[in-house]
Specification:
Elements lengths: L6 E6 L11 E5 L4 E5 L3 H7 L9 E3 L2 E3 L1 H14 L3 E5 L4 H14 L2 E4 L2 H13 L6 H7 L2 E5 L10 H5 L14 E5 L10 E3 L6 H12 L9 H11 L4 E6 L8 H15 L5 E6 L5 H12 L5 E4 L2 E4 L6 H6 L5 E6 L14 E6 L9 E5 L8 E4 L6 E4 L10 H10 L6
Parallel strand pairs: 6-7, 6-15, 8-9, 8-11, 9-10, 11-12, 15-16, 16-17
Antiparallel strand pairs: 1-2, 2-3, 4-5, 4-17, 7-13, 13-14, 18-19
Helix pairs in contact: 2-12, 3-10, 3-12, 4-9, 7-8, 7-9
């Protein structure tokens, strides 16, 4: 960059993880960007990604105009009897446009992050008690991280809400941090308790028994000590990332944690924080739920939305050839490629993504860089506005999707 042409942008929101940190300082010259303050390695890489000049749309391996690409994509959806619209990263505006398209062509809508559904199933079945990032920063004196080091997916978590200070007093001491079935990241002073991931549910069954004064015959001393420390907490928080619970029936582990939290709240103040929001998964869930009344894994039909979290799981649909076309969108990460398939496929990928094997590829801009937008934060309570930072001539995913919708007759 030429220093004379740089513009400093403050209070920039970062769309590249669920924390949506809104305090970055970014410099730009109209074409390239660089994070210069309060970022993380992920934000620096993603904001600094080079934008290919005049990247063309591609149809059957050949460069074409945008209109030609949209025409071919519309033809694929028009001839499909059961398409899958799969998000690998989209903001609220793109999800709204995706849902309008799904309603027009009778598609199933899902997100690539299967961890999100583990949380949703628990929330639907029995509910939970959760908190926010601000409450942790202001009030928490104990943070129990379960099955995740947190920072590999949410790099600034401890900086933003876990290391003391806060709106109610900058001198508030940092909370005690304990890692259960996870290794603390560098620089975090924390106690660890080693547990196999598939045994986390058993641990919380023991902790729940202790909360209810039903001591099992044999309890590991470190678990008994943990239970005692938790009972002394003024405001405790248990943190997990469902994406890290990659084992069979992981939702039962999440439910065990949530039921334990409920029991704790009979005598002390304790809450959960299910971390998510990467690749816009929480925004996808919020948008479809508000608009249809149902979460992801819903099929849109002439009779109305049809929700089935097992039948309409994207991985299952693709593995069993239960769909006959795929539309995939990934606005935030050019390395977040679509699932491999031999189906007629349409990919709206972040500009800079190498065109994957697909029928139609359309490079699109990134919300928070190439256009304004909104994303929901990991704690579900804030829709963070994203600013347009530069003008690089990138195609807008919502506009592209709306053009496809306009080219389709009403679904019958």
């Amino acid at each position: 960059m030429n220093p004379a042409s740089l513009v400093l942008l403050d209070h920039v929101s970062c769309p590249f993880c669920g924390l949506l940190c809104d305090d970055l300082s970014v410099t730009g010259d109209g074409k390239t960007l660089a994070v210069v303050a309060r970022g993380c390695d992920k934000s620096r890489v993603q904001f600094g990604q080079a934008f290919p000049a005049n990247a063309p749309c591609v149809v059957d391996g050949n460069p074409v105009s945008l209109d030609a690409a949209i025409e071919r994509a519309t033809a694929i959806l028009r001839s499909s009897t059961q398409p899958l619209l799969l998000s690998g990263g989209a903001d609220v505006a793109s999800m709204r446009a995706l849902l309008a398209l799904a309603d027009r062509c009778g598609a199933v809508v899902d997100h690539t992050n299967e961890g999100l559904m583990r949380n949703i199933l628990v929330l639907q079945d029995s509910g939970w008690i959760t908190t926010t990032l601000t409450e942790i920063r202001n009030r928490a004196d104990l943070v129990l991280c379960v099955g995740t080091d947190v920072v590999s997916r949410f790099p600034r978590f401890f900086e933003r809400c876990g290391m003391g200070g806060g709106m109610l007093g900058d001198q508030r001491p940092a909370p005690e941090v304990i890692f259960l079935s996870a290794t603390p990241p560098a620089g975090i002073n924390a106690r660890t308790i080693d547990v196999a991931p598939n045994q986390i549910a058993e641990v919380f069954a023991v902790l729940r028994a202790l909360v209810n004064n039903k001591k099992p015959q044999r309890v590991e001393p470190q678990l008994e000590q943990l239970a005692q420390r938790i009972q002394r907490a003024r405001y405790g928080v248990v943190v997990w990332s469902a994406a890290d619970f990659d084992f069979s029936q992981a939702e039962l582990t999440i439910q065990a944690i949530c039921e334990w939290v409920k029991d704790l709240n009979k005598t002390i103040r304790f809450a959960g924080l299910p971390l998510g929001g990467n690749q816009g998964d929480i925004s996808a869930h919020q948008t479809i739920t508000w608009q249809s009344g149902f979460p992801l894994r819903t099929r849109f039909t002439a009779q109305g939305p049809d929700y089935d979290p097992h039948r309409y799981a994207a991985r299952r649909l693709l593995a069993t050839d239960a769909v006959d076309a795929l539309l995939y969108i990934a606005e935030f990460d050019s390395n977040f490629a679509p699932p491999a398939t031999t189906l007629p496929s349409i990919v709206l990928g972040r500009a800079g993504m190498l065109p994957p094997p697909c029928t139609v590829f359309i490079p699109v801009g990134t919300p928070g860089i190439d256009r304004s937008g909104h994303l929901y934060r990991t704690d579900n309570v804030v829709a963070v506005p994203l600013k347009k930072l530069t003008e690089r001539g990138a195609y807008s995913a919502p506009q592209v999707l709306n053009q496809m919708t306009g080219g389709l007759a009403c679904f019958v």
